[in-house]
Write a structure and sequence with these properties.
By secondary structure, the protein is α/β, with parallel strands linked by helices. The chain contains 24 helices and 23 strands. The chain has a 6-stranded mixed beta sheet. It starts with 5 loop residues before the first helix and ends with a strand. The structure holds guanine and zinc ion. Guanine binds near residues 3, 35, 40 and 104.
Length: about 550
């Protein structure tokens, strides 16, 4: 990959380069990825200046694409610190036949530790770009910000920081940078730091010292990248971002931005519905993690106001329904319709969801977090609204509401209904439980496994995350009752025969999908006339399905052969 000279013009003053000659030059020397001569948008620009800069950048991108031939072309998103300009620039570039989308003009933000502005620039650019295209963060060379940048959707970095810092006798670490003179030990085990003692490095001649420190800096940077890739595959990147943010007060303060509802709603769209690993609490920022935000929103929309009387239990050992099983039985016998809620630090947990991700699969200190945290107080306030809330110890203060026997619903059935609503949307539980219900439990764990409606296998409950796997008969029921596009992925006609054979759905065959679907959600696969073709598991959300031109969008689980 080569750059065009934009950054050098910015650093060292105007250099006379022709914007198209430089693209042709990169093409002719055989670059895989070349870069257009964009206009560097500095943070101190007025909006008018920034607008002029992006107009020229877009114009140059259009003309450069015509001469790129087979070279991939990077078209940087500019727009200074104005989020609307960043988004607009990204949208316009995204419509062109460009291959690679760096976020430019951010070096001064990183140099001055203006991480809030940096985060805003990245999010604004990402919002405008097609989600299937690679994004580069121009000039990002400090591992301190790698986890955050990746979590926000950056795929590539470039920087000469490793050598610039080395020239200045500074060592890079994931938590920041240290002057070699201020270190008494080498807090690192890279090949350089394992081979040399600190005094050996200090005593080297300048040029070989630079060489050694530069190598250390590269080892540390790549180690962090490998850790990030592990975190992505384990599903705990946000946890890593939270931990790392505690290394630097500027970064920590920038994290506050991620508490805004608008940003959480955006990030939540890209968040898988469950993870391989339990959710680990790192501090109050965890309460704003996209997956926590989602669970709070879904609990609020599905289960708030279900009953005007709520019995509240304190956070305890999980699964809650086992720890509190006696108390729950007693309450349910007398008052089967009362809502039972555990006052968890992740927000209110209806007892029926106590095996569902992330409520069961989370590790959080048991302390009076809820009472101390204003945000959580608000969450509880809007969930409870005007309901009567009684602590389970004070239940005797409530008069027993006499209930007829047919109001009593078996707790397992109730769990199935609640999880279905939480997972597929309100009403799904009633649809799936319409027939004569029978279920099989695991002999070993006693947990619900397979659910049959009128003797047809409709759902299986996964032990790992407490969500359902949708069987073809369950899919049929939801298809009959949920109107399009709910939980559907709609495929083009030419893909139909493949899906009928049980093959997975490639993104390029997807015509549309329910905007509510999230990565790893169960879905219905239908054709353009809404005929039911099968059930599967989404690997992407709608925006990604429509943007990716290669790769699988939905893994088909069962196809409908009727
Ligand atoms: N390197 C660092 N920042 C930039 C930028 O904004 N544009 C280009 N082309 N290269 C950069
Ligand atoms: Zn080292």
């Amino acid at each position: 990959m080569t750059d065009s000279g934009t950054f050098q013009s910015y650093m060292y003053g105007d250099i006379n380069i022709d914007p198209y000659e430089i693209v042709a030059f990169q093409r002719d020397i055989g670059c895989d990825v070349g870069t257009i001569l964009d206009i560097f948008g500095t943070p101190d620009q007025t909006k008018k200046q920034a607008k002029k800069g992006i107009d020229i950048t877009i114009e140059r991108a259009k003309k450069s694409i015509n001469i790129k031939d087979s070279m991939k072309l990077a078209c940087p998103v500019q727009g200074s610190i104005y989020p609307d300009l960043r988004t607009k620039c990204a949208q316009e570039l995204g419509e062109l036949n460009a291959d690679f989308f760096p976020i430019g003009g951010v070096v001064p933000l990183m140099e001055n530790q203006r991480y809030s502005d940096l985060i805003q620039c990245i999010i604004a650019a990402k919002k405008g770009l097609p989600p299937g295209k690679p994004v580069h963060l121009f000039g990002a060379g400090h591992p301190l910000i790698f986890p955050m940048a990746v979590a926000l959707g950056c795929d590539f970095f470039d920087s000469s920081a490793y050598v610039k810092y080395a020239q200045d006798d500074r060592l890079i670490f994931y938590w920041g940078t240290e002057k070699i003179d201020e270190l008494t030990e080498l807090p690192c085990s890279c090949p350089i730091c394992s081979h040399y003692s600190i005094s050996e490095i200090k005593n080297q001649e300048k040029s070989s010292r630079i060489n050694l420190i530069a190598k250390h800096n590269l080892y540390v940077s790549f180690e962090e990248i490998r850790k990030i890739r592990n975190a992505i595959s384990n599903g705990n990147l946000w946890e890593m971002v939270e931990r790392r943010s505690h290394s630097n007060p500027h970064l920590l303060s920038a994290m506050k931005l991620l508490q805004s509802k608008d940003i959480k709603n955006y990030l939540e769209k890209y968040e898988p519905i469950s993870k391989k690993k339990a959710l680990f609490y790192t501090g109050t920022q965890t309460l704003h993690r996209p997956i926590v935000h989602r669970s709070q929103q879904r609990v609020q929309s599905c289960f708030s106001q279900i009953n005007k009387t709520i019995i509240e239990f304190e956070e305890t050992k999980k699964p809650y329904s086992q720890t509190y099983s006696k108390q729950i039985q007693r309450i349910r016998k007398k008052n089967p319709l009362f809502s039972i809620i555990v006052k968890s630090p992740l927000g209110p947990v209806p007892i029926e969801l106590d095996e569902t991700y992330p409520f069961a699969q989370s590790v959080i200190p048991i302390d009076p977090l809820v009472e101390q945290n204003e945000y959580l107080k608000q969450i509880y306030h809007s969930f409870y609204k005007d309901a009567t809330v009684v602590n389970w110890r004070n239940i005797s203060s409530l008069s027993t509401i006499s209930s007829s026997d047919n109001e009593y619903e078996d707790f397992d059935i109730r769990r199935i209904r609640y999880v279905a609503d939480y997972q597929f949307g309100k009403g799904a539980g009633d649809i799936l439980l319409k027939g004569k219900i029978r279920f099989v439990k695991s002999k070993k764990t006693g947990k619900i496994r397979n659910i049959y409606s009128d003797d047809k296998h409709v759902l299986s409950m996964r032990a790992s995350d407490g969500f359902f796997t949708l069987k073809i008969e369950g899919g049929r029921l939801l298809h009959d009752s949920f109107l399009s596009p709910l939980i559907r992925v709609i495929v083009f006609d030419d893909a139909v025969s493949f899906i009928r054979e049980g093959k997975s759905v490639f993104a390029k065959f997807i015509k549309d999908a329910d905007p509510g679907l999230r990565p790893f959600d169960e879905c219905l696969i239908v054709d353009e006339t809404d005929s039911f073709l099968g059930v599967g598991r989404c690997l992407l959300n709608r925006a990604e399905m429509l943007s990716f031109s290669s790769g699988v969008g939905v893994k088909t689980r069962e196809s409908n052969n009727i």
